[in-house]
Amino acid sequence: MVANEELIKIAKEVSYNAYCPYSKFPVGACALFESGKYYVGCNIENSSYGLSLCAERNAISTAIANGETSKLLKIAIYSPMSSECFPCGACRQWIQEFSKGYNVEIILENDDKGISLYYINDILPYSFKLI
Ligand code: THU
Question: What is the pTM of this model?
Answer without folding.
Answer: 0.98
